TrEMBL record, chain B:
CDD domains: 8prop_hemeD1_NirF. Coiled coil: none annotated. InterPro entries: Cyt_cd1_C_sf, Haem_d1_sf, Host-pathogen_enzymatic-act. Keywords: Signal. PANTHER family: DIHYDRO-HEME D1 DEHYDROGENASE (PTHR47197:SF3), PROTEIN NIRF (PTHR47197). SUPFAM superfamilies: C-terminal (heme d1) domain of cytochrome cd1-nitrite reductase (SSF51004). The keyword Signal applies. This is Protein nirF. The keyword Signal applies. Residues 1-23 form the signal peptide.
């Protein structure tokens, strides 16, 4: 509870004043969930290493020069006519923007699913 | 009696000699491979060698590259597992010694593979460069490279839905070219390929256990493409046309996987695309028998080997569930929650147990299928595919 109050306090300004996506980065827990989701579940089409599969590669080299608004829109709305589904309802626009920034920078390694780390460490 | 005991004594003496000769090395107990299998630990690029009789892990094998979407076929003596990795790696793993017997990197991006009827030829199906490649199963020497070119400007399609057929032939589908192809590798250095136009965007396919019917699931249209391989001259026919009834398709967060395990009780149990349903079609007449509402987008729709039940898992984000369909009533009879991110299931050869991978709980869960009681859990790092050596003897696996 203590942690949560601090987090809420930290994000209050962001809630009150509309700001750019990068200023409303998801909290640490959510970042970890998103990284896990992109690596593992987006990875079923784009590859665990994001080198591509049924879907295209999502590496910095392949994404360089593509406007980030278009990439964010692809995540949120999907791409009709292709197997890329809309992630609306699972990922909001600011989270999609955060994912796109990370992809362009070189995507972080998967820290595991939230709370499963303990299972993995103690086995 | 007396000659028999003489032989026994002689055999004993020989084995004593062998034992003493090997005394300096680790003694290795003789064993068969019929109850062995592998669990893919995809995050760490490792394979666990497991044994189903005592439900235990025997060994771990590493150095297999990128194992996201790894799939495995077995040599016909079921000693070797051939692992097809996403990064194009093809690794031959000796299950008895838990070592890598051979490894090649054969493509930039691969999706799986198959093994020929006679067990001599491995075929990899590749996304990049799109096509299939044939290898000697013994040496992994390249025998044939068959690009999946289409159109007039040399474009290559991603290959999906590869299955072995009688006569050392292989059937597969071209996702980008709306085509089914059959390549005859009976003379492996001189492959011959037949082409059949199919429905839009085949994403995976299966061949029935007798090798007769090839059914490709379609992403791009409501329906499936069926080729009768006993009558290929009749071409591809659409089955279950318009199963979506013109309704808006639901998002598909993971493509379903099709194999001969879909066949039970004379029918095929098939995942709908963009609908939370399992479609049931009668083999031969291709009449729709039932559509069974399920929890989410089905991924694996897998019959227990006796065909009395069909077990179903689901796409992200509803992937913590398994539902069980009774094939007599064609209705759900059980819903299980084995763990988080259920990626795969594999039945024991005669179906009394099923192994289930729970990726996000880092474990494999083993159920008895009669009462659906949990019998054991084995730790595994981010487990995905589970493959038992009984696949060695099944067409289409």
């Amino acid at each position: 509870m203590f942690c949560r109050s601090i987090l809420i306090a930290a994000f209050l300004p962001a809630l009150v004043f509309p700001v750019h996506a990068q200023d409303t980065a998801p909290d640490d827990k959510r970042q970890r969930e998103l990284v896990h989701m992109v690596r593992q579940d987006c990875g079923s089409c784009h590859g665990l290493t994001l080198q591509g599969g049924l879907g295209p590669a999502l590496t910095p080299a392949t994404l360089r020069g593509k406007p980030s608004e278009g990439l964010v829109a692809t995540i949120v709305n999907g791409r009709p006519g292709t197997p890329m589904p809309p992630f609306r309802g699972l990922v909001d626009e600011s989270e999609a923007a955060w994912i796109v920034e990370r992809l362009v920078d070189g995507f972080p390694a998967d820290g595991g699913p939230e709370s499963a780390q303990q299972t993995a460490d103690t086995r | 009696m007396i000659p028999g005991s003489k032989v026994k004594r002689a055999a004993l003496a020989v084995s004593m000699l062998l034992l003493s000769a090997c005394a300096s090395q680790q003694p290795v107990a003789l064993r068969g491979t019929g109850d062995l299998g592998v669990v893919v630990e995809r995050a760490t690029g490792q394979l666990q060698v497991i044994e189903t009789t005592h439900r235990r892990a025997l060994a771990q094998v590493s150095g297999l590259g990128d194992l996201s979407h790894a799939s495995v076929v077995f040599s016909r003596d079921s000693r070797y597992a051939y692992v097809f990795g996403r990064d194009g790696g093809l690794t031959k793993v000796d299950l008895l010694t838990a070592t890598i017997a051979n490894r090649v990197v054969q493509a930039g991006n691969a999706i799986g593979g198959g093994i020929s009827q006679d067990g001599r030829i491995l075929v990899a199906q590749n996304y990049e460069p799109g096509g299939i490649k044939a290898f000697d199963a013994d040496t992994l020497e390249l025998l044939a490279d068959v690009p999946a070119t289409y159109g007039t400007d040399g474009k290559r399609s991603k290959v999906v839905g590869l299955a072995d057929l009688p006569g050392n032939r292989f059937v597969y589908s071209l996702f980008d070219a709306n085509e089914i192809r059959v390549t005859d590798l009976s003379d492996p250095r001189h492959p011959k390929t037949e082409r059949y136009p199919s429905g839009k965007q085949p994403y995976d396919a299966l061949v029935t256990p007798d090798g007769r019917y090839y059914i490709a699931g379609l992403f791009g249209e409501d329906g499936l493409s069926m080729l009768d391989l006993w009558h290929p001259e009749e071409g591809v026919r659409t089955i279950l046309p318009g199963y979506g009834r013109g309704e808006q398709a639901l998002p598909v967060y993971k493509m379903p996987h099709l194999r001969g395990w879909a066949v039970a009780a004379g029918r095929a149990y098939l995942p709908a695309i963009g609908r939370h349903e399992v479609l049931v079609v009668e083999l031969g007449s291709w009449k729709e028998v039932a559509r069974i509402p399920v929890k989410s987008q089905p991924v694996f729709v897998m019959a227990r080997p006796d065909g009395r039940e069909v077990w179903v898992n689901f796409a992200f984000p509803d992937n913590s569930w398994i539902q069980v369909i009774d094939t007599v009533g064609n209705a759900i009879v059980d819903t299980l929650q084995p763990g988080r991110a259920i990626l795969h299931m594999e039945f024991a050869p005669k179906g009394e147990e099923v192994w289930v991978s729970a990726r996000d709980d880092n474990k494999v869960v083993i159920y008895g299928t009669a009462k659906r009681d949990k019998r054991a859990e084995l730790p595994a790092a981010s487990p995905s595919g589970i493959f038992f050596t009984s696949r060695a003897f099944r067409t289409g696996f």
